[in-house]
Amino acid sequence: MNYTKFCQYEAPIGFLTRMEIEKPYLVFEDLTSKRSCEGFQKELSIFQRIIYMEDEWRLYDPANIYIFYKDMVRLIEASYLIYKYSPSLASPRSIKHPGLSNSPLVNTVNSVFPALRDKRPDLDQGNQDALPLTFLQEFYDSHHLGYIKIDLYNYLQIGLNASYMKKCKYEYFGLVDYNVMFQFRDLSELIAEAYVMHAKGSSCFPHLEGCAERSFAIDRGHTSLLSYECIAKPLDVLDDICDYCLSADGIYAGLKAWKKMLYETDIWKAAASPGNLLYLHENIIRLIDVLWLLKKKGQLDKLKKEPRMLIQNFFEHKKMYEWKALLTEWLEYSLSNTNKYMESQKRETTRSFKQLHKFFEAIHLINPA
Asked: Which of 273, 280, 308, 274 is nearest to 294 (CA)?
């Protein structure tokens, strides 16, 4: 099988189930039932504020910020399916070329720049073939699907004050203020467009039982956080994570602390940097991707018996996508000050954490640093 199609920068879907991909109306129904259009846009403005305002995240439950991020990405992905398979559902869009203006003075200034002067369409001749026909066409022509999702994840890390970033976190992510401003403006308009499309009713939405995007569903086994290069050389990823990302000495204490966070309330009212949990979550999922890929490529057979058996037991305990779903659930609960696991869940949670410990034992046997 060609696994390169699951490159994290190109995969069109990363947060939707098979059912949601087949019936994108379900995503719109879920998101619009949680909040009004104005409420959704208000949460977007909060998300934007936490990027720039120090400790702004403390005014909110970090889990709610993470849940908003997930919902925003789900909306982007579901809207992409509409853009690709049912473009007539989107609103028509009247677009002016960037070189045009109602002001003669502004047009004179714009004429200095060849890109605005020479590529201006001749509206008198009706030459508007290159202009977007709908809002969704404009949005996805302007924003690469993979990169806008990565941008949002970067904003989430910044907003939740991840301490592993450089001192100048804006430089770390290469944020340019005007790019962020226009991006959030377009996202706000996408939210409004989603509510307009949802109001048309389920009968207007497509059924996509045979679409190619089904292979990217989150309830199917595939890599999700590996690039082309990492998919080609998964053992190099294992080396990098063990050498630079997750300390062999600290990982077990980190897992123990993460487990306690599932049950303790009000952690983030005093503690700092909830974004660090994102990094832990991300690297564990990337390791799962690597070991699963090695298993699929038959490369586990080259390992010694002990790590090979530990890895096999890990994937027998839960399927790959079940592990990822569980880790994301743990992330949400541990980011929350109020929404916590019940005592009745401790036994099964302990079993899963034990499997995760053994998973890291296998990794350290493979890569003794």
From this structure: 308
pLDDT digits (tens, 9 = 90+) for 251-293: 999 999 999 999 999 999 999 999 999 999 999 999 999 999 9
- DSSP helix/strand/coil, 230: helix
Of 360, 337, 178, the closest CA to residue 254 belongs to 360
| Cβ-contact 22, 207 below 8 angstroms | yes
Tell me what pLDDT residue 200 has: 97
Phi and psi angles of residue 134, each rounded to the nearest 5 degrees, phi first? -135, 165
How far apart, in whole angstroms, are the C-alpha atoms of residue 117 and residue 98? Answer: 10
Amino acid at 54: E
Distance, first Cα to last Cα, the chain: 32
User: How many angstroms separate the CA atoms of 324 and 345, rounded?
Assistant: 18
Share above pLDDT 90 across residues of the chain, in percent, rounded to a whole number: 71
Q: Amino acid identity of 122?
A: D
Is residue 342 scored above 50 in pLDDT?
Answer: yes
* DSSP-assigned letters across all residues of 140-152: HHHS-HHHHHHHH
Contacts of 68 (CB under 8 A, 6+ apart): 43, 44, 46, 47
Alpha-helical regions (H) of 199-274: 228-232, 234-240, 251-261
CA 334 vs CA 64, 67, 158, 323: distances in Å: 12, 12, 18, 16
Containing H/E element for 115?
helix 114-117
Task: List pLDDT tens digits, range 288-313.
Answer: 999 999 999 988 888 889 999 999 99
Q: Which whole-number Å values give the CA distances from 60 to 72, 104, 164, 254, 266, in the listed order?
A: 17, 47, 22, 24, 12
| Helix (H), strand (E) counts: the chain | 17, 0
Beta bridge partners of 134: 92
What is the 8-class DSSP label of residue 369? -
What confidence score (pLDDT) does residue 127 get? Answer: 47
